[in-house]
Write a structure and sequence with these properties.
The mean pLDDT is 92. This protein has 1 helix and 10 strands; from the N terminus they run αββββββββββ. By secondary structure, it is mainly β. The protein is globular. A hairpin with a 2-residue loop joins β6 and β7.
Length: 125
């Protein structure tokens, strides 16, 4: 049994600042579950172009509002909304006022991966 709280990982290697937000890695590859779970926060006023070539990701909004844009179509994200881009699909995640997401990754994250907002092209891992 694994019991882990967000408070227990704050300030550790599993508390990742990815530039336009934070990602608290609650479950990672070393936990040997076959998937990872993160508690992610998107900072207000940010927009990040993303693409995950090595992972499938599903994100469920639990707080705040934002949007995800893919192929020129923008979808509103609010509490109770899930979005799950295809592997390798470029998408732009944004939030005017801040947004909190619970995310699942398969295969699991190691735990220390981070985005590089502002690089040429999408950021991902």
């Amino acid at each position: 049994m694994i019991i882990r709280t967000k408070a227990s990982i704050l300030g550790t290697d599993l508390d990742v600042d990815w530039g336009n937000g934070t990602s608290r890695r609650l479950l990672v590859a070393a936990d040997e579950r076959g998937y990872a779970i993160t508690d992610a926060y998107v900072r207000p006023g940010t927009s990040t172009e993303l693409r995950f070539d090595n992972h499938l990701e599903s994100c469920y909004c639990v707080e705040g509002h934002g949007a995800v844009e893919v192929d020129g179509t923008t979808f509103a994200i609010e509490p109770g909304t899930l979005y799950a881009p295809d592997k390798g699909e470029v998408h732009v995640l944004s939030s005017a006022d801040g947004m909190r997401l619970i995310c699942v990754f398969n295969p699991p994250l190691v735990g220390t991966e981070t985005h590089k907002p502002g690089v040429t092209g999408p950021s991902g891992y």
